[in-house]
UniProtKB/TrEMBL annotation:
This is X-Pro dipeptidyl-peptidase (S15 family). The keyword Magnesium does not apply. It holds the Pfam family PepX_C. The keyword Hydrolase applies. SMART domains: PepX_C (SM00939).
Amino acid sequence: MRRRQLLKSIVIGTAGIASSGCVGATKERLYSQADGDIDYDDTFAKKEWGYVRHDWDPPTGTDRPVVYTHDGYMGASFAANGPTHYIRMPDDTLIATSVGVYSAIPSPDLGDEYVHVQSSVRATACSAGDASDFGEVYDKRSHGLDGHEIIEWLAARPWSLDRIGLFGLSYSGMTSIRVASTQPPSLACVSANVIMGDLLRGRTFPGGVDNLAFDNWLNNLPTLWWDEESQDIIPEQEDPFCRQHRANRDPQTIIDQHPTWYRKRTENDGYRRINFIEMAKQIEVPTYISVGWQDGQVGQRGGPAVYNALDPDPIHPGDFPGRRPPSPELRESPKLLRATNGVHGTAWRALGRDRDGRRWFDYWLRGENTGIMQEAPVRLDFGMDTKDSHGTMSLDGFPASNTDWTRYYIGGNHELTTERPTTAGKETYTSSSPDYWYIDDLTDKTLLSYWSAPFEKPRVIAGPITATLYLQSSAENTEMYVSLADVEPGDEAVTYLQRGMLRASHRELNEAKTLRNEAGEIIRPYHTMVDPTPIISGERYRYDIEVFPLGHIVYPGHRLLVNIHAPPQEEGPDPARYWEYDPLDSGSENILSYGGDTPSSVLLPMLEWGSKRGNRTSPLPPEPACGEPDGYTCMEATLPQ
């Protein structure tokens, strides 16, 4: 018997047995610790598992597919009429849940053929609980196990199928990963979109550089959740449970007890607990991931890293009671990654393209052969939100197995070339932070700039990027920020594409987690972030810098531009609210060595457009206007002569 069959039989066999769980539980005590004095008779009916609104109409039919979202933002408390149910958890906490055809978050166009279910994370909005109940952001109990319990409750409803889909965007996308990692027996599939991966390396301290904006966002979450004015749209006046749950909470206590481990620049137990890449390794069902390459809120690193961490052969929904999807030959790896240019909301809109979200759930929950699992596991979208420059490329993985790893070497006279310079050289810049990473004056002495020859044919950058720099500094610590840009013919219009950064003291690599290609080259460095070690002034070191992954077409006549400088004060325009740095800004003199035995370079994952070696593509789309694709910023720049 497969694990999932065994767990399912256990759930069914224990229904009706007295326990502290919510599925099939019978209790003598039918009130949570906070609800003993609530007068609910006019609005809610008492059940063995919690409470339901008197006027709630259950969905018709006996096999309605259910898609569930466990959310800390816009959960059940923000649905059209507020919570329809309060579901009891094993510790008696009541979780506000809304069941219906309405979804408070952008859904994948499922319509009224599905049942939409949303819950508010405990201790937020209408759900019961206080600071000790909430724990911390993405806590296993509040953000994971509660969702596990509710999935099993849903599977036992007479109006639902016995397998449940899990859906989330942004915050709820990451909560979906947390819930799925607890392996609910009745969970069939997951759609987790625009998500983080490793909070430490991807958002709060990328490369050890202090991202103040995200630190401030995390620090202000308690105010966002528990400030009275921010919650004034909750229909608590008509909901006695919601009213009492909120009255029983002391927002200031929750704010005061909010963990602060995320303010530390090094790996710690808090960061280890909130690592979605590690959580993904525990997921056993088909999973759909989407990412936007210019997403300033959750970043670009998480989606691909979570996708690659997923089990390549998860348990299929056909392995436990319910209808098996019709495809006779499921993919060896039923997980999908969909990536596009654009910001946080672009990937949301991309869900509607080709009705990906609907086709995913129709396949795994309704058993309809929508064709989605006959598609390549990875699809890149280019030119999203342009008038006529949209194109796609299908890959067998990320990075693709036929990636042409192309190293661009830094050379004298601002050269960026695929030929390794035999003659060694040096260049100096002053480590002083610019205002933004979109730099228009490339003649400034606070940065170094290098650009390639014009491309003769279209090439695609598709995968992780690594910059390797040989550098010495006059200070005992310094920071390096490497950006990649596309220069249009005429050398005036520049589109900044991606960036990466590293504080010198955080240079140590974790060799076991550093990714290498078949040639042994580092394609994604993984820094230990455990024991920062200062450098010796004037001594040269090798630095391997992770530049965040990317999908981008370089058109004929265009060049690639690499800038090296200190981290900017902030990034803009779109990521500005979420990427504001506290750089060292030491004013140190940094000397970059290149050529000879110190081959400073950038390793790029390149593909040909329309390659016959496995990459299915649409026709090459017309070149978009500079800055036209969503998330791209076009600006005039002055290149050194």
